[in-house]
Amino acid sequence: MFPALLQNTAALAAGTGLLYTGVLATVALVSVLARTPERRRDARSTLTLLLRRRRSS
User: Fold this and answer.
1) For 36, phi and psi rounded to 5 degrees?
2) Residue 29 has pLDDT above 80, yes or no
3) DSSP string spanning 24-41?
4) Other CB atoms closer than 10 Å to residue 23's CB: what's the count?
5) Residue-wise over 33-56: b if at least 16 C-beta within 10 A, else e?
6) What percent of the chain is helix, strand and coil (3-state, nearest 5)?
7) Are 40 and 34 in contact (CB under 8 A)?
8) Is 12 left (phi over 0), alpha (psi -120 to 50) or beta?
9) What pLDDT score does 53 carry?
10) Distance from chain centroid for Cα 18
11) Among 4, 31, 33, 50, whose CB has the most other CB atoms within 10 angstroms?
């Protein structure tokens, strides 16, 4: 039972990490490629918040 639980936990952690990386990549692309300055600024602010939270965890 313990090995199965450990395997499921590892799979969940890996999936969560991939999802977070995808979100960061999307926000980074939007911050560079957005058409309006407001959207670029908002995306950069979001990226800053996401990275700040990640470092403090």
Assistant:
1) -100, 145
2) yes
3) HHHHHHHHHH-SSHHHHH
4) 13
5) eeeeeeeeeebbebbeeeeeeeee
6) 90, 0, 10
7) yes
8) alpha
9) 62
10) 8
11) 31
